[in-house]
Amino acid sequence: MTRMILSVASLMVLSCCTPAQAALSAFPVDGLARVRRHDAVFSNTTASIKAARNEYEPFQIVVRADGEGLKRVSMEVSDLRGEDGHIIDRRHVTLYREQYVEVTRPSPKSKEGAGWYPDALIPFVNPPDGRPLKNARFAGAPFEVEPKANQPVWVDVFVPKDAAPGTYSGTVTVTAQHQEAVRLPVRLTIWNFTLPDTPSMRSNFGDFDNRVAAAHKVGVKSKEFRELERRYAEALAAHRICPPIPGYLYPKANADGSIDSAQSHALLKEWMERFHVTGFPINLLGSDPLAKDRERNVKYLQAMYAYLKTNGWEKFAYIYVLDEPNDAAAYEQVRQRAKLIHEAQPGIKVLCTEQPTPDVPAWGTLLTPRFARARKAATRLIGKSISRCSIIASPPG
Length: 397
Hints:
18 strands; Immunoglobulin-like
């Protein structure tokens, strides 16, 4: 009887301490792959990326629950070591769990359909201080994975400016409760050139506004929101996206269209230089810039351009005249506003987002001859017409 009790006890201890039947598997995929929850199993075994110095380059690790679900899943990346002894420290690698978001109404021309898509990146640790997230609505790690489901993790690798070129190797280690750890090799090739801090591509991704403040449950004029603005701007600039310029940094527009930059200039200069801003959007003033407010706008555009030129920023100036005009009146509004801007202050560019071919030919065109030629050349190159939304630099006035 004693022997039987000891045998049962031994089996219980073994069952508690021995890892469960392997349910954890992990696979590397490149940063452009979109991995949905129930996509097929992947076959890659090595994460391989290439980057210049002063560049971020990502890859993904897909964690899969092959049988039962996984609990307390986490991940870490080792230092990346070169053959000559150089090291890319692990602190230059950032991990994010990809949060799935349900799309119930897909875009009209989408071939993907409704369903769950990986979208938001939830950091494993708090970006400002590297500490675990506290009281967060969504957790980065550890996380759970449903049975027979995928959970991708975004791995963002930064190559410092002083990194030596060559090939570096490291390891990603994936762990989960009651599972054997999975280790995947990582290979980084660093090219022998350095990207400049200021990106060559100019971009416009909207504003930091009330919607962002509301999402964080802070006031748009609060100290907390100012800190959030800078953190968003830092993340955008680090990944070569031009951050928006907060409205309070602009020169004050006076009633007659003149400007006063005394209170804001120092802060604006710091923002422009710190975040390598390549776009300076200017808004037309008033509700009727083509008639009642025309004189004020002419003076304002001339004053703003002179101010920007004094600081070497005039090449960044543009006006977003209208968002996706979609009827004859809106098309004419774009043309008239563009004419006002070109006449008031040559040098300020005009931005309008719209498909190259209007829905109704009778509306006329917004394309400059140069853009039209570029469109034809691109059409010949790719073998089909460009029909997606495009940026028009200067609609004809």
